[in-house]
């Protein structure tokens, strides 16, 4: 058998983790032959609740789940980690200023970045989910200089899956038939869900999404705002933020990163910007990527319309502002 992988999940007693942990334990993330050791990090006062989650994991009788570490000490949680899924974050409270939110989270992701730097494997792959995810990811990366920059990513796969879902619903087809939608930029309401290069395959026939939907007003209007505001719509309906779909997207993100994407298939991942598509280096920006052999590659050479360019720059500017504000909080 392959050696077990150590997977850190922070915010492990929260609602996303409650949907996520069983998926990791049952092989959905790493496949049916890969044992896992779960490292669960929570804040100290939540440890009693975390013990309940640990009991449930034990009672799940998961053949692949080799061991569980539950702790409030980041240096214990991140020890020898192969993967770190950073879900825990400080939630936005009513009346809270943006600067307060950034400052609370900057503190958390500084500590966790430092712990990753100190005790995780240098090959650790990091996925930040806790909001503001892209900027939190940038901070963790900043405080973990001994880990390759490209190992730090943030979750926009949920937005990607939402975009696919909306196209499938509009056309009355399965999401299986919808390919290569793209999420550009920030996991926030400025994100740009882009259908210009995507296609659908219906009855064996390949068609661009644009031609199949045949309604550019919708694709450049309601489609974009529906995806951008989907998180808020779920909070309004459920009174809690999306958790089941977030957990599912986390599994998709890591699984594809590790096991690869199907030939010709793009997925969206927020990764360190490298100048691709004229987005300056220094932020964590969602791009279309393909994955192979445990590495992602930003898809190059796509045509960018003037409409797209405007949206891609706007979401970049928000990230640049968040970065500036977060770094100021740490002065
Ligand atoms: P939740 O509030 O149910 O759980 C968060 C957990 O994190 C809590 O148990 C809390 O005690 C813990 N936590 C807080 N600070 C921590 C720290 N320093 N170390 C370890 N644990 C800590 O929240 P939920 O619904 O699970 O969401 C978690 C985060 O994910 C939120 O920030 C949410 O906005 C974000 N999110 C991101 C999505 C994305 O697509 N990027 C999608 C959905 C949610």
| Estimated radius of gyration | 19 Å
What portion of residues belong to β-strands?
A: 15-25%
Mean pLDDT across the residues is 96
Termini gap: 48 Å
Low-confidence stretches: none
How would you explain this protein's 3D organization?
This protein is of the alpha/beta class. The chain has helices spanning 15-25, 47-59, 74-77, 98-119, 133-142, 157-171, 209-213, 216-219, 222-228, 230-238, 244-259, 306-329; strands at residues 5-10, 36-41, 65-71, 83-86, 125-128, 152-154, 178-179, 182-184, 192-194, 199-202, 205-208, 267-272, 284-292, 295-298. The strands form four sheets. The chain has a six-stranded parallel beta sheet, with helices on both faces. Strands 7-10-11 form a three-stranded antiparallel beta sheet. It has a three-stranded antiparallel beta sheet with strand order 12-13-14. Helix 1 packs across helix 11 (244-259), helix 4 crosses helix 12 and helix 5 (133-142) packs across helix 12. It is globular. The model has no long low-confidence stretch (mean pLDDT 96). The structure holds 1,4-dihydronicotinamide adenine dinucleotide. 1,4-dihydronicotinamide adenine dinucleotide binds next to helix 1. Belongs to the LDH/MDH superfamily. MDH type 2 family. It comes from Acrasis kona. One of its GO terms (molecular function) is L-malate dehydrogenase (NAD+) activity.
């Amino acid at each position: 058998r392959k050696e077990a992988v150590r997977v850190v999940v922070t915010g492990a007693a929260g609602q996303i983790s409650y949907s996520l942990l069983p998926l990791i334990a049952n092989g959905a993330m790493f496949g049916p032959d890969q044992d896992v050791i779960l490292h669960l990090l929570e804040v100290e006062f939540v440890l009693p609740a975390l013990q309940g989650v640990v009991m449930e994991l034990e009672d799940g009788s998961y053949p692949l789940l080799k061991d569980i570490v539950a702790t409030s000490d980041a240096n214990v949680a991140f020890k020898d980690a192969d993967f770190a899924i950073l879900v825990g974050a400080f939630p936005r409270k009513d009346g809270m200023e943006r600067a307060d939110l950034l400052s609370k989270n900057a503190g958390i992701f500084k500590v966790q970045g430092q712990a990753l730097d100190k005790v995780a494997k240098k090959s650790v792959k990091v996925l930040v989910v806790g909001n503001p995810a892209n900027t939190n990811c940038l901070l963790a990366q900043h405080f973990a200089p001994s880990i390759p920059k490209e190992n730090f990513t943030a979750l926009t796969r949920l937005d990607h899956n939402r975009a696919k879902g909306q196209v499938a619903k509009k056309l009355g087809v399965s999401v299986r038939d919808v390919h290569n939608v793209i999420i550009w930029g920030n996991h926030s309401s400025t994100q740009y869900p882009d259908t210009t290069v995507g296609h659908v395959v219906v009855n064996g026939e390949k068609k661009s999404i644009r031609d199949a939907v045949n309604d550019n007003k919708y694709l450049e209007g309601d489609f974009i705002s529906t995806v951008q505001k989907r998180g808020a719509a779920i909070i309004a309906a459920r009174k809690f933020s999306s958790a089941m779909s977030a957990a599912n997207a986390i599994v998709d993100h890591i699984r594809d990163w590790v096991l690869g994407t199907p030939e010709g298939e793009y997925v969206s991942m927020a990764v360190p910007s490298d100048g691709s598509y004229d987005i300056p280096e220094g932020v964590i920006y969602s791009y279309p990527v393909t994955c192979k052999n445990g590495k992602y590659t930003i898809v190059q050479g796509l045509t960018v319309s003037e409409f797209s360019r405007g949206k891609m720059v706007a979401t970049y500017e928000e990230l640049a502002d968040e970065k500036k504000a977060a770094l100021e909080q740490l002065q």
